# Entry
Amino acid sequence: MFVLGIDPGLTRCGFGLVEGSLEGDGRAVALRAGLIETDPDNPVEGRLAQLGRDLARLYREVTPDVVVVERVFYQRNARTAIPVAQASGVAIALADGAHVRQFTAQEVKLAVTGYGAADKTQVQAMVARLLGLSEAPRPPDVADALALALTFLAVARRESHLPAPAP
# Structure
């Protein structure tokens, strides 16, 4: 199963493609990761359009089974939250054909590190460890995207053992 994590942002949007299974030992392998960047000097409309084009190209290239986007849960600054929410909406809207799932940053930190208030360095270190990487993924946007994909695999693995809901 190919799971694409997206850490949405208008200036820097991290992505990480992980291959994993809901069966067996739960190992996952990072296949591709990086950043999509837009120029903060350009108008928001143009930056969202560029992000959309770049994400659409990425989705076509990697054909994920699942797209996992960080849920905008809480931001102290609305000026930051709005562009992140807009980027998140673009990522979700373009995931046509793939299953879409969202997790908050706290849910991701808990799933990956075991501590919902872990800092960026702890998340990066655990992502490297869980994926068998020789060094921590950088920048943090990339590590967060990989962590989103890992979170999906962990949660979906647990959910697959639950009884089906009654009709």
Summary: The chain has a mean pLDDT of 93. The chain is about 45% helix and 20% strand. The longest helix spans residues 140-159. The first strand starts at residue 2 and ends at 7.
